[in-house]
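Justification of computing resources. Each target in the renewal requires a structure prediction run like the one illustrated here; the chain below, 304 residues long, is used simply to show the kind of job we budget for.
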Amino acid sequence: IQEPEEKKIALELLETEQAYVNRLHLLDQVFYTELMKEAKTGKTVPEEVVKMIFSNISSIYQFHSEFFLPELRKRMEDWNCNPRIGDVIQKLAPFLKMYGEYVKNFDKAVELITAWSEKSPPFQELIADIQKRKVCANLTLQHHMLEPVQRIPRYELLLKDYVRKLPPESPDRGDAEKALEMVFMVAKPSNAAIAEMERLQNLWGVYQRLGLEDDIVDPSNQLIKEGPIQKVSTRNNSTSEKYLFLFNNMLLYCVPRVIQVGAEFQVRLRMDVDGMKVWELKDTEFPHTFLVSGKQRTLQLQAR
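Resulting structure tokens:
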């Protein structure tokens, strides 16, 4: 007989949870414990650094291995007479707030691993030695550390799926919907934190390509669009290759640098978005052209 859809999803939740607990065990009981033991002998790296790298991974590991996984397993064993997981997930949700600290610390942790691997060869060797073990499946410490960051969005997806597949009259409907709402509330900050982290990383990458001009570097800017464009010169009826970066507050009109060392572009003009106007031109000789006019000047540009 065909298993009901919602049971398949609940089983997938249990299987992924088991794999996740194994990963947490590796982080907490293997990497953290062994690096800490070495740090205590004072040969590799300060104990403080190891603590900073692993943040609150021990609490996360204990919670999942000692509470959530066993509860979930019990539920799945009793599924036939009591088909529900919503109540267990409602107990899980508040504890997911522990992830806030871990997610917030993640960037710094990765930087510390890189910095201390360069500073301390024994530290690097110990990590490399653990990474060679079968349990690491050829993946780096950084890769394993990303797992908790990605786990909450995963709960959210599985649970959404579970609620969608539940028959209307299922005894778990009320609990499961409430659980989904609770997980969603907890997931929001970490999703937002991840999105913000990615936004800042992308922004930093753009600033590096622009040669880090200090009046342009501002963490609150938002990059909206970037891409190559042709500048139309009406004087001699020709076009030349330029590049635009549009931020929420400014348009940067750049030329690609020929020498590819350091910055990729040179900013020729910075136009404030405030008071800027854009309109299309019907130019038969240069199709897809438009004018951008701002306080600073007016440009005639041609898109692809």
